[in-house]
Amino acid sequence: MPGYSDRDRGGRDRGYNSGPPRFGGSRNGPPQGKKFGNPGDRLRKKHWNLDELPKFEKNFYQEHHEVSRRTPQEVDNYRRSKEITVKGREVPKPIMKFHEASFPNYVMDVIHKQNWTEPTPIQGQGWPVALSGKDMVGIAQTGSGKTLSYLLPAIVHINHQPFLEHGDGPICLVLAPTRELAQQVQQVAADYGKASRLKSTCIYGGAPKGPQIRDLERGVEICIATPGRLIDFLEVGKTNLRRCTYLVLDEADRMLDMGFEPQIRKIVDQIRPDRQTLMWSATWPKEVRQLAEDFLKEYVQINVGALQLSANHNILQIVDVCNDGEKEDKLLRLLEEIMSEKENKTIIFVETKRRCDDLTRRMRRDGWPAMGIHGDKSQQERDWVLNEFKFGKAPILIATDVASRGLGLFLPFYLELYFISGNLSFTITIYYKYCCYL
């Protein structure tokens, strides 16, 4: 079994040689003819013959000697203390320190710069599973460190595959439900991939197609995509998934909630069936379980915390039930207290886009440093607002549920949610105790 110590690149860039596309097929896309009504209708389901496909390696895990020496009792105690449960055959022992993952130096150097003390629970158990080449389902809350749980093994996986050639699509595909989450994942991929000269791109709707197409045509090892935009590019032959051997479904439960299941199935049909697949979800409803049964083989399931979506224990929640007329006075008094603190970033979630715009206008008129974000804003405006909030220029962000998961904000902040029911308004104030991991 091959290890994954540092690979001697001899100064080579992961360039893309000229020549015809490999693995068969054409980059000219399907024949043009009748128009199809639904996304993916022009994609034909592939019929794979595994005997004819190029072989690839996906097991790179070498158990560290410190991990090997741990007794079953020590492993059970660690899992119990971190609320980790596992299901599956031959599940590797978890790691407790970063060096026990035996990542190559180009990965460890970036980890050391973060000054983290130990892996999060999902990383400690997830890295050995992913590096072993196994399919896996990870069930953990947002902010648990899942992004690095799949991206660092992806980088190791890619660095042991043949270099991309002209016409090749990505080796690693990450599907995400929203452009905000996709952009966050792409930033992490860029930060950790540049040391080994891996190229990544992010493709999503609401942005010009030209730059995204140019990235794909130049060749990228990692593609982070929302399902709709990826379907568009696959249908017209702007990319392909012939080289994809590492597939990630991030926030699978939310993608299903948003109605992306048909697109996901169309996309997965374009990927060789012996790929490695990792699925991530905050919940484990029957729809997500069915997706796992359809897409994964002999998978390991890792759960951190309860299977049902529950309150994060690192958060203090205060519920204030009041009449509708009292709500804004309470909000202003609370904001006055928060703005006097050194760490004063605040997100106010509202139910509708109109409510978001109205509240933002009124607060700015009264001198509050507030900005709003919702689904009708252009991508450029959304990016600008998030940057203003992230760097403290506008410490109050008013948002609809477009920002409810996966924003990737690393400083402690306050969070306000307003729910209106009849004459009562429910105000939930959430105080984060610590910064979220990726």
How would you describe this protein?
With 438 residues, the chain is α/β, with parallel strands linked by helices. It is built from 14 helices and 14 strands. The chain has an eight-stranded mixed beta sheet with strand order 1-8-2-7-6-3-5-4, sandwiched between helices. Strands 9-14-13-10-12-11 form a six-stranded mixed beta sheet, with helices on both faces. Strand 4, helix 7 and strand 5 form a beta-alpha-beta unit. The longest helix is centred in the middle third of the chain and has 15 residues. The two termini are 30 Å apart. The N terminus and C terminus are likely disordered. It catalyses: ATP + H2O = ADP + phosphate + H(+). Keywords: ATP-binding, Helicase, Hydrolase, Nucleotide-binding, RNA-binding. This is RNA helicase. InterPro entries: DEAD/DEAH_box_helicase_dom, Helicase_ATP-bd, Helicase_C-like, P-loop_NTPase, RNA-helicase_DEAD-box_CS, RNA_helicase_DEAD_Q_motif.
Which helices and strands, and how do they pair?
Elements: H1 65-68, H2 72-81, E1 84-87, H3 105-113, H4 121-131, E2 136-139, H5 146-158, E3 172-175, H6 179-193, E4 200-203, H7 209-218, E5 222-225, H8 227-235, E6 246-249, H9 252-257, H10 261-268, E7 276-281, H11 286-295, E8 300-304, E9 315-323, H12 327-339, E10 346-349, H13 353-365, E11 370-373, H14 379-390, E12 396-399, E13 414-421, E14 424-432
Parallel strand pairs: 2-7, 2-8, 3-5, 3-6, 4-5, 6-7, 10-12, 10-13, 11-12
Antiparallel strand pairs: 1-8, 9-14, 13-14
Nearest-integer average pLDDT: 82
Order of helices and strands: HHEHHEHEHEHEHEHHEHEEHEHEHEEE
Helical residue percent band = 25-40%
| Largest sheet strand order | 1-8-2-7-6-3-5-4
Oligomer: single chain
Strand proportion, as a percent range, falls in 15-25%
* Alpha carbon gyration radius: 23 Å
Question: Given the structure, what is the number of helices?
Answer: 14
Instruction: Let me know the largest β-sheet.
Output: 8 strands, mixed
State the end-to-end CA separation.
Answer: 30 Å
Strand-pairing-aware structural class: alpha/beta
Number of strands: 14
So what's the overall shape? globular
Low-confidence stretches: 1-13, 15-35, 418-438
